[in-house]
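yo, Corrinoid adenosyltransferase is done. seq:
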Amino acid sequence: MAKRLKIYTKTGDSGTTSLFGGERVDKSSARINAYGTVDELNSIIGVIVAFKPDGKIAEKLLRVQSELFALGSGLATPASVKVKIPRVGASNIKRLEREIDIWSLKLPQLKNFILPGGSVVGSHLHMARTVARRAERAIVELANSEKINKLDLIYINRLSDWFFTLARYANQVDGNKEVVWKGRG
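structure:
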C-alpha cells in the first residue's frame, strides 16, 4: 500500500509558513494576508458556482478562479525567487474589461448608488466584490513594502469592477430589480 501524504505538516504550529521558494515568514505578514484574501475570494466564487448560476456566468467564474490561483501563486512568490510560475497578465485584464463593457451595454445606466443584494447569485457576487476590494487593499499594503508584479494590482482592481457589473447582470437575468440607495431620505 502506498504511503499517503498527510495534509498537516506541523511546521506552521509556531505561527510561520513557507513561501514559494522556501522562505519562512510570519502568518501575519503582508504577503500572507494578500494571498490569503485572494484565496478567500476564490472560495466565495466556489460558493457562487454551487448556486448554479446561468451557464455562461458559471464558465466565467471558473475561469476567474483559475486566474486567482495564478494571482495567489504570484503573491506567494517573493521577487527574489527566480522561478517560472503562472501570472495574471495584460490579456486577463483586457478580457475583464471586455466583459464589463458587454454586460454594461445590457444594463440600465447607473444614475444613483444601488444597494448590494438581489438574487442569491447576485448578492454573493456583491460579496465577492467587497472581498476583491479587501484583497486589493492587502496587495497595496504588500506593494508598499515589497516588489510585486504591477499587473497583480491592476487585475484585482478591475476584478472588483467585474464583480459589481456581473452582480447587476446576474440580477437582471434573474429578474431582480435594483434597489436605489435613498441617502438621507
